[in-house]
Design a protein that fits this description.
CATH topology: Non-ribosomal Peptide Synthetase Peptidyl Carrier Protein, Chain A
Radius of gyration: 11 Å
Largest sheet: none
Helix content: 40-55%
Shape: globular
Strand content: under 5%
Order of helices and strands: HHHH
Distance between the termini: 9 Å
Structural class: mainly alpha
CATH superfamily: ACP-like
Number of helices: 4
Length: about 80
């Protein structure tokens, strides 16, 4: 999966129209709330990536999600 595809998947999971970049601060995304976190957890789970609500408390930017996905993203 490309970085662009991953970012599009995050935007779709959050149901946001915002264009996301790795530098996007999660707190600036209106849809990034408790429901958004659950949607992201589901999206990541479909990719075989496990994340807990506690993990999301540490995340500050989309780059943190990219780092979590790690090798699932082809540069």
């Amino acid at each position: 999966m490309s970085l662009e595809e991953f970012l599009e998947g995050i935007a779709e999971a959050l149901d946001t129209e915002n264009e996301l970049t790795p530098e996007t601060e999660l707190e600036r995304i209106d849809e990034y709330d408790s429901i958004g976190v659950l949607s992201l957890m589901s999206y990541l789970d479909e990719m075989g990536i496990k994340a807990t609500p506690a993990d999301f408390e540490k995340f500050r930017t989309v780059a943190d999600l990219v780092a979590l996905a790690g090798e699932k993203i082809d540069g």
